[in-house]
## 1
Amino acid sequence: MSEPVGNKVAVLGAGSWGTAFSIVLADAGNEVSIWARREEVAEAINDGHENTDYLPGIELPHAIRSTHDPEEALAGADVVVLAVPSQSLRQNLPTFLPHVQPDAVFVSLMKGVELGTLKRMTEVIEEVGDIRSDRIAVVSGPNLAREIARREPAASVVACADDDVATILQKRMHSQAFRPYTSIDVLGCELGGAYKNVVALCVGMAVGLGFGDNTTASLITRGLAETARLAMRLGANPLTLMGLAGLGDLVATCSSPLSRNRTFGEKLGQGMTVEEIYASTRQVAEGAKSCSSLRALAAKNGVECPIVDSVDEVVQGRMTTSQMMESFIARNPKPEIE
Ligand SMILES: NC(=O)c1ccc[n+]([C@@H]2O[C@H](COP(=O)([O-])OP(=O)(O)OC[C@H]3O[C@@H](n4cnc5c(N)ncnc54)[C@H](O)[C@@H]3O)[C@@H](O)[C@H]2O)c1
Ligand SMILES: O=P(O)(O)OC[C@H](O)CO
């Protein structure tokens, strides 16, 4: 990526994070065009400067415009930010790709692993778009959308195989409240982001069952060990997992009532079924799908992942949340560090 000639960013997906991240981009001096799947969301953003469905009560900067037309959103944009649910990325890309500028750089905000293919989101973009990996970045960190939209200070990681591209993107998204660090460990950042959602589901289940801080801290810590085990087997830098896209995001998501994944788990712990929870919200809890893909990825690579295995069993309705907690304690004793 050469130094940008324009300053337009297209954000594809007008959910909570696509909209909150648009505020960061606008504050950092970019002109932002958000593609919204539903026309009424685009109209609310243009007419009232508010995403009434996903970020009610937050006034959006006037540098943010929205459209239902992908061609209009992408026209003139040298940075293309993808913020749709992970499992819908593959089906959405063919609608977007014909309108992307030839030299544009892609940024994935998504935190999931595709069911079936077991691919990370940057891998799906690379494959479907036939795009070189050094033009695809990921942004991941402890970034709960509503807090970012309120401009509460937070840090994150922008990772790309090409360090120069990561540095250019870092400048494009560094605002008064948002501090991005660069990295070349795309794999570590993406796995950290996808895995913490499953751990947050598990922590939520424990909270829903009425357990306290010893339980949640134990799950967070063993969840991090599990994440690092799989990520390192696949080639990630272990220090990435100790950083913002690993531990940082894990702590934020597992601790916050704003987290959709933790809330989903909490409802399971309180006795709701998966179907009842899906019917009660429009927002995505990525971990409820990625528990299956991460489980398969771990099995394929011979990595032991009891938390992901058990969360998947609960989500599939083959184990209760109480049985899951009992099974963790009953596992064969072993050293903490192997
Ligand atoms: N919300 C956060 O705090 C946050 C922070 C960091 C990363 N993320 C990640 O960002 C991604 C997007 O999450 P979000 O929080 O914006 O989700 P969301 O549930 O708030 O919004 C999802 C958006 O995608 C649209 N959508 C739903 N199904 C679709 C489909 N089949 N095709 C196209 N669009 C569809 C919805 O209309 C909505 O605009 C997820 O991978 C999530 O893990 C979210
Ligand atoms: O609301 P969640 O659980 O999707 O988590 C949001 C972000 O990923 C936190 O960094």
## 2
Amino acid sequence: MTEFSRPLDVDHPRIERAIREILLAIGEDPDRDGLRDTPARVARAYAEQFAGLGQDPAEVLSTVFDIDHQEMVLVKDIEMVSSCEHHLVPFYGSAHVGYIPNEKGQVTGLSKLARLVDVFARRPQVQERLTSQIADALMAHIQPAGVIVVIEAEHLCMTMRGVRKPGAKTVTSAVRGSFRDHEPTRHEAMSLILGPR
Ligand SMILES: Nc1nc2c(ncn2[C@@H]2O[C@H](COP(=O)(O)OP(=O)(O)OP(=O)(O)O)[C@@H](O)[C@H]2O)c(=O)[nH]1
Ligand SMILES: [Zn+2]
């Protein structure tokens, strides 16, 4: 198990008590066969789902190499699952993360961009903050000339309850540095990310 797949050190008994209370509150019998182990399962699930709370983006981005490449690097279609902090149900979709290395040509490992998405996705989140946290962490830790992050996601809180609109996609973007200041650069990235639609 690598450092970044390690579950969060949560208070298991406390989550178990709370889940048992929720089951009682909805009129269920927490002692029936199918539910008896549910509080413990949920505690383990939360330890995974919120593992990002115990992870440091600086560590993910500590791999930096110098390959003298100063053009755009883009990893698109990174599958991501996060948890809506309002309803504690998932929102899920794709993240696209691009950057232009600084004048020293410093890049990070491609997988680190996907790991960075997970560090912030595996926390109670809203999509806008998730998007900007990824962008800001890249700016802070690899000092690139610019960063673009686009996330497209479906929110189960809009599908299984509430407004009940399955299929509605929320698209958020965060641009920093040259992607913010130079429209053609941003446009090039957006067309690579979204493709012809
Ligand atoms: N901006 C933003 N809103 C979100 C996100 N995830 C969920 N929401 C919204 O958070 C809002 C919470 O609204 P409230 O009126 O406080 O809660 P609610 O009564 O459960 O709202 P409904 O979902 O409309 O039933 C809802 O409109 C959700 O769609 C997100 O990532 N970003
Ligand atoms: Zn929600």
